[in-house]
Design brief:
The structure is a homodimer of 200-residue chains. Chain A is 45% helix and 10% strand. Chain A has 200 residues and is of the alpha/beta class. Chain A has three domains: 46 residues, Orthogonal Bundle (Helicase, Ruva Protein, domain 3); 115 residues, 3-Layer(aba) Sandwich (Dna Topoisomerase Vi A Subunit, Chain: A, domain 2); 28 residues, no CATH class. In chain A, helix 7 links the parallel strand 5 and strand 6.
């Protein structure tokens, strides 16, 4: 005897989600049985709504309710500078920082590269088209400083070859608010390499 | 800007599930956006069905479609021996082993103790009543050999005080099919302590 059919079915469905193995699927499914019925109904509704109501922006590729997305449609933003990021999370972080007022270009809709995805070929094609047709002066590479991010950045460089656009990347160095003793050697090495004169 | 509202709402709902932190909730939510619509609908349905169609057996406390459950209703099983387990998973494992033909008593409906649960007081009360009223000869403690399981076992022993029922527990020792070098010292210590004469 295994679990009753509806419970078994839920376990099988949960197992297909990223990062959820058989044990955690069981654990979550058994937890669901103890949740108030309204909460389960709301979780089910949230799943449907997220899938049915959101879409990809046809300009930047970000997740949005309407296409083009609010950022691409915002006429007050600098349309000459594109920040290339791996996924929607990175757009959310950049926007939260308030540090960037240009437009974005998202390489992957869902899974970040380190979760097995790779930049979507159509996302790269759209990037080249935007650069050639939309008066873009500068493309800022803001992919993660890890192997997958570097791989994505290499593909972007290749894609933009011959367009003559200015290609930059985010500065590397010591992150504000972190004690040096907690940083990996590679972080410090890049911080030394990129050191700047102190204005006096 | 964070994510669009339906996506943000899904992340918040997922975060409430056991073992899912903010990062994995985001990762799962972004994955959902890329799933075929039918699969999302089926996951949502599986959640509802598991919650709405299953219930607790009023006799043993296991998860079931109908109460009493198929095991408690099975007249061919030995009704004089109760195996006390922590949760529905353990019942499923015991049944898969085919080693036990008595009835069960489940201490927790969902979360196992090591996930923050503790035996339900009403489950302990029902156990005492079963022992006193249903002609039970023996109660086998099959809680996990860890701190939480031992805690649950202690509560069961307390609950059954004065009933005169025979209380046993599963044998401890070297698990079949595992090489000794991979076992913790405590396992070997218990195996030595419980060593038996080899019949010659």
């Amino acid at each position: 005897m295994a679990f009753p059919e509806p419970l078994e079915r839920l376990v099988r469905r949960l197992e297909r989600l990223p990062g959820i193995g058989p044990r955690s699927a069981e654990r979550i499914a058994l937890h669901v049985l103890k949740m108030p019925r309204e909460e389960v109904a709301e979780l089910a509704l949230a799943l449907r709504d997220a899938r049915m109501e959101t879409r990809r922006c046809e300009v930047c590729g970000n997740v949005t309710l309407r296409s083009p997305c609010a950022i691409c449609a915002d006429e007050t933003r600098d349309r000459g500078i594109l920040c290339v990021v791996e996924g929607p999370r990175e757009v959310a972080s950049m926007e939260a920082s308030g540090a960037f007022r240009g437009l974005y270009h998202v390489l992957l809709g869902g899974d970040a590269p380190r979760e097995g995805g790779a930049p979507e070929p159509q996302a790269l094609e759209r990037l080249r088209r935007r650069v050639l047709e939309d008066g873009v002066r500068e493309v800022v590479l803001a992919t993660a400083p890890d192997r997958e991010g570097e791989g994505a950045a290499a593909l972007v460089r290749e894609t933009l070859e011959g367009t003559g656009v200015r290609l930059t990347r985010l500065a590397r160095g010591v992150p504000v608010g972190v004690r040096l003793e907690y940083l990996q050697g590679a972080v410090l090495a890049e911080a030394f390499e990129g050191r700047r004169d102190v204005e006096s």
